[in-house]
Every structure is written in C-alpha cells, then in structure tokens.
Design brief:
There is one protein chain. This protein is α+β, with helices and mostly antiparallel strands and 207 residues long. The chain is built from 7 helices and 7 strands. The strands form 3 sheets. A 3-stranded antiparallel β-sheet has the order 1-2-3. A two-stranded parallel sheet has the order 4-5. Strands 6-7 form a two-stranded antiparallel sheet. Helix 1 crosses helix 3, helix 3 packs across helix 4 and helix 6 packs across helix 7.
C-alpha cells in the first residue's frame, strides 16, 4: 500500500508539472494560431483554450483541455466541433498542426480540400503552411486550388476511365514535371489553358 501511495504521488507530481507547462505556453500558442487563422482566410475567427483540472490522473495528465471558437468576433466562444464548419475545421487544424509540427509524432497528415471556400492569397498561405508541415511529416492534400497544388513536391492526378467492359474505374497517375505544369494551368484556365495560364502555373510552381 505504501508503494502504491508513493507511485500515486509521483504520478500526481508529474501531472502537475505537465499542467504548469501547458498553462505557461497557452498564451503564445493561442496568439500564433490566431495569427495563422487570419492568413488562411479566417480574419474574424479566434480560438480559445480552456483547461479544467480533473480529480484523478488520466491518460493525458490531470487536465481536460477544450478548444473553443468564436468565428465572427462576437465575444461568444463555443466548442470548436460545434462552431466550425467542415472547411473551417480543416483550416483550424492546419494552423494548430503548423504551430506544433516539430513536436508531433505523426508520420502522415491528410487534408481533404482544406482550401474549401477560399482563393487568392488565403489559398497561397494554406499552400505555404502545408509545405512547411512537409518538413516534419508526409503530407497528402486533396485540392482544386492551383495556389495550393503548386506547393506540392509530387503530384498525383486522380481520374476515372472505362475498362474493357465499359465500367468506370478510378485511376491514379503520378505526374511528370511538364504534366504538373499543364495540370495546374488547367486549374487556372480550363481544359484548354492559354499561354498566360501556363506561364502563371510555372510561376506558382517555381515560387
């Protein structure tokens, strides 16, 4: 019993240290994430993080951590999973993972149309954040935005074609450098892109 008591005290002491570290980094973490949200097309959104103490140690310490969102500078924060749309949630997670990238032990991150509802500079910033994440993880991103696609180091084109029996099947093809340019140009200018679209695609890839 004495040994169990000593182990429990050691566990609680470790959990207290973890709680103190979490609270110490909280202001700077929130500030960095909110700055990134502005860059990716959510200038009116702010996250807040609420930490409440648990009565007993759990798997992640003695804290219950909740992420809150005010999407429109209303001053009212709600649970992130209730307040954010699918596209917003993807961008918020991108910003959070960008801040914590070097500390995350996740071999692969997958983003499905993280750029939904944005374009222009906001889409470009999403692409920059994704490229930054790729320094620490394998990043797979499904996108229809040329600004985002151009930041990838490898491109795979997903398409459907009929087999010998006329049934459609999904195919995936890795694009070669010239094909990458043409594919991104088609995102910009349609199926038959102009020389201007091709030139723009080259500039995006070479940025």
């Amino acid at each position: 019993a004495n040994e169990e008591g000593a182990v429990y005290k050691e566990l609680v002491a470790a959990a207290d240290k973890l709680s103190a570290k979490r609270k110490n980094v909280l202001p700077s973490f929130i500030k960095k994430v909110n700055e990134l949200l502005t860059l990716v097309g959510m200038p009116n959104a702010q996250i807040q993080i609420q930490i409440e103490a648990l009565k007993e140690p759990a798997f992640m310490g003695m804290d219950e951590v909740q992420f809150l969102l005010d999407a429109n500078k209303s001053g009212q924060f709600q649970l992130l999973q209730k307040a954010a749309s699918g596209g917003e949630m993807s961008r918020i997670m991108l910003c959070i993972k960008s801040v914590t990238a070097s500390a995350l032990h996740m071999p692969t991150l997958i983003f499905d149309e993280v750029d939904t509802g944005i374009s222009g500079e906001a889409a470009r910033q999403v692409g920059i954040l994704l490229r930054g994440l790729s320094q620490f993880h394998q990043v797979i991103c499904i996108t229809h935005q040329p600004q985002v696609a151009a930041k990838g180091s490898r491109h795979f084109f997903v398409f459907k074609e009929p087999d010998k029996n006329g049934r459609l099947s999904t195919q995936v093809k890795q694009l070669q450098p010239a094909e990458r340019i043409l594919s991104i140009a088609r995102m910009i200018g349609g199926e038959q892109p102009s020389e201007a679209a091709i030139s723009n695609a080259k500039e995006l890839v070479e940025e």
